[in-house]
Amino acid sequence: MNILMIDTSGPACGVAIMADGRLVYEAELTHRQTHSQRVMPMVDTALQMSDMTAADMDVFGAVVGPGSFTGVRIGVSTVKALAHAANKPCVAVDALEALAANVTAFDGVVCPILDARAQQVYGAIFRRGERLTEDTVEKLTLFLDRVEATGELSRLCYRAEIEAVMRTEEMSGISLLGLQDFPGQGTALVGMLNSHLQPKPYDFARPERFRAFFDGVLPLALLPRYCYETGETLEAEIRVANSGRRPLRGALRYTLICGITRLAGELAGEGAPCGALTRLGTIRIALPEAETAHRFMLQLEMDGVKNAYPVWVYPRVKPRRPETVWETEHFDVQTERVLEAGGVVYLSPAATKEALPQSIGTQFSTDFWSVGTFPKQEGGMGQLIESGHPVFEGFPTDSHTDWQWWHMAGQRALIVPAGLKAIVTEMDSYAYMRPMAQLFEARCGSGRVLVSSFGLQNLQQYPEARALLGSIYGYLASDAFAPCQRVEPELLRALVP
Asked: What is the C-alpha radius of gyration for the chain, rounded to an integer number of angstroms?
């Protein structure tokens, strides 16, 4: 079978001929002149160079996008004219589907993207050549934000593992499997380096951020937890790992800082000799009273060597549900009536498989053990958090999973329809790419609903969970609770029966 293909959907104009399953001619031209001026001369050249005529073709094809509307129109009209003249059939080819067909041997999910201009990209999801989603256009930042969020979590987990080794007595050293993306039997699904062993162009991959904790000389704080309430005392054992070439001398100075608040002190000692793990003692800091939640930094410094840890401090307040909010664990008849009457609903089921049949279990860290080989394991690649959303007014957070999310991140995530916008998105692993949410809002009927899969009602022994629930209550009672997207009752009934 002989096939002539035309692609005018993008900035380049392309023509190719296949004969009996073999590519015999291919040409691509990017020129200031329009595709309408170039495509027919390129077709003529292709036929001549292949010793063929239009009558020798069995099928004519054109790429129908996604891409430039005018460009697609030029290619389609050209192919239809050629096919009509030769009395042969013509076919349409999707550009994203064609790109995905190049990696059909890969067992995971493939997401080809094309430039859609205006900081947007065309994209679709495929698996072994099978289409999982329709072509769509998304802001480029949506992809970059996901990479950034899961990369920050990956770096945070690297730090936890490396510091655990460094504060272990008589540990000989550390050997990392790799710092590139490695979806096999390893822990570098989101590596710091690209395939050329260069740092990726993201903040989480800056060499200085990795060296801040992966160093031969480092003061270490053994924090029992990262979240506290006002009035508590922060206690942490301090050790110094010194595999450097010089001993550290002098006292260790520590500072707990947030804005203008500085709580400082020092641990005196005999220094930290080379080739040893030195236990300096325990620091104790009385946490200040405050009416709002704050993120502090615990800074350590000894003889010019530094390290720092985040610490979250929350007010000692028990969250109270506003009287105007209907809180429930199930989408039942009464809940639907509240929404139909224009009420406000907080739908917060228990974080179990029984309560959330369309969900997966999540974890704090990213997937790491050969997802393709063991497909039944649950977990994802971390959270993408809309940190500027007013629901977090009383719960300071970045756009990625951090230690104050420890208990909430290890609950469940709802598998939701594609296109549903979430406030907290659980990013699925590369093997599945399911759209998932842990917190989303919507209009339903005449009312408004906020849906959570954190099961916060069962986590109230933790100050961070109390703070998040209190922040949610405050948001639901405010004028800021004005969701734009709409869902039908049937969807909520399926997600939270």
From this structure: 29
Other Cβ atoms within 10 Å of 13 Cβ, number? 26
pLDDT tens, position by position, 454-489: 999 999 999 999 999 999 999 999 999 999 999 999
Assign 437 a pLDDT band (cuts: 50, 70, 90).
Answer: very high
Structure tokens at 489: 């009752």
295-321 burial: b if 16+ Cβ within 10 Å, else e: ebebbbbbbebebbbbbbbbbeeebee
CATH 3.30.420.40 domain extents, the chain: 2-93
Tokens representing 65?
């996008």
Question: Which CATH number is 2-93 given?
Answer: 3.30.420.40
Residue with tokens 């508590």: 232
Question: Which of 99, 54, 51, 114 is CA-nearest to residue 79?
Answer: 54
Q: Which residues contact 69 (CB under 8 A, 6 or more apart)?
A: none
This prediction's pTM: 0.83
Task: Report helix, strand or coil for 326.
Answer: strand
**Separation between Cα atoms, residue 221 and residue 297, nearest integer Å:** 12
DSSP character string of 2-37: EEEEEE-SSSSEEEEEEETTEEEEEEEE--SS-HHH
CA–CA gap between residue 372 and residue 369 (Å, rounded): 9
CA angle 379, 385, 389 (to 5 degrees): 150
| Range 217-314: architecture per CATH | Sandwich (2.60)
CATH 2.60.40.10 domain span(s) along the chain: 217-314
